[in-house]
């Protein structure tokens, strides 16, 4: 079994964070997540995250420090999720490669059905251990 390295952006705009909904046809379809995606072989994680956000939401971000690292198993697949604090640069996101997106506070995240790997990140943002 190999580890799949995935990046995720915690994009801050004032007191809210951007979350994205996976397309219905995607694995874990219609689940909510912090936007990002798989790294290409040899790709720098911050560069890969910037690329994924352009591909998924058609917007530029400023990638900051690591916020959390999650190791999660989806059946036979093992992913290592690298979550980064990211700065919003004022460009409106679009649903280029996602179903929907929302700006929400950490408290409001409880109303959304997140992918399993993202749940610990939600809890950390909410201050729950």
From TrEMBL:
Q: Whose protein is this, by species?
A: Desulforamulus reducens (strain ATCC BAA-1160 / DSM 100696 / MI-1) (Desulfotomaculum reducens)
Which PROSITE patterns does this entry report, sorted A to Z?
NUDIX (PS51462), NUDIX_BOX (PS00893)
Q: Name one GO biological process term.
A: DNA repair
Keywords (alphabetical) are:
DNA damage, DNA repair, DNA replication, Hydrolase, Magnesium, Metal-binding, Mutator protein
Q: What is this protein called?
A: 8-oxo-dGTP diphosphatase
Asked if the Swiss-Prot or TrEMBL record annotates the protein with the keyword DNA damage, the reply is yes
Cross-referenced SUPFAM superfamilies: Nudix
Q: Give the Enzyme Commission number.
A: 3.6.1.55
Tell me where in this chain the Nudix hydrolase domain is found: 1-127
Q: Which residues form a coiled coil?
A: none
Q: Which domain of life is it from?
A: Bacteria
Q: Which InterPro entries match?
A: MutT-like, MutY_C, NUDIX_hydrolase-like_dom_sf, NUDIX_hydrolase_CS, NUDIX_hydrolase_dom
Q: Name one Pfam family in it.
A: NUDIX_4
* Statement: the UniProt record of this protein carries the keyword DNA damage: yes
Q: Which family does it belong to?
A: Belongs to the Nudix hydrolase family.
Q: Which CDD domains does the record match to this protein? A: NUDIX_MutT_NudA_like (cd03425)
Cofactor names: Mg(2+)
Reaction catalysed by this enzyme: 8-oxo-dGTP + H2O = 8-oxo-dGMP + diphosphate + H(+)
Q: Which GO terms describe its molecular function?
A: 8-oxo-7,8-dihydrodeoxyguanosine triphosphate pyrophosphatase activity; 8-oxo-7,8-dihydroguanosine triphosphate pyrophosphatase activity; 8-oxo-dGDP phosphatase activity; 8-oxo-GDP phosphatase activity; metal ion binding
């Amino acid at each position: 079994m190999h580890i799949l390295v995935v990046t995720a952006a915690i994009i801050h705009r004032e007191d809210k964070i951007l979350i994205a909904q996976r397309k219905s046809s995607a694995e874990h379809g219609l689940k909510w997540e912090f936007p990002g995606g798989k790294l290409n072989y040899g790709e720098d994680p911050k560069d890969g995250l910037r690329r994924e956000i352009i591909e998924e939401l058609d917007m530029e971000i400023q990638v900051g420090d690591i916020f959390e690292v999650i190791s999660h198993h989806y059946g036979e697949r093992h992913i290592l999720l690298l979550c980064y604090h990211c700065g919003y640069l004022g460009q409106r996101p679009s649903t280029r490669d996602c179903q929907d997106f929302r700006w929400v506070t950490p408290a409001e995240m409880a109303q959304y059905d997140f992918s399993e790997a993202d749940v610990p990140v939600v809890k950390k943002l909410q201050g729950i251990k």
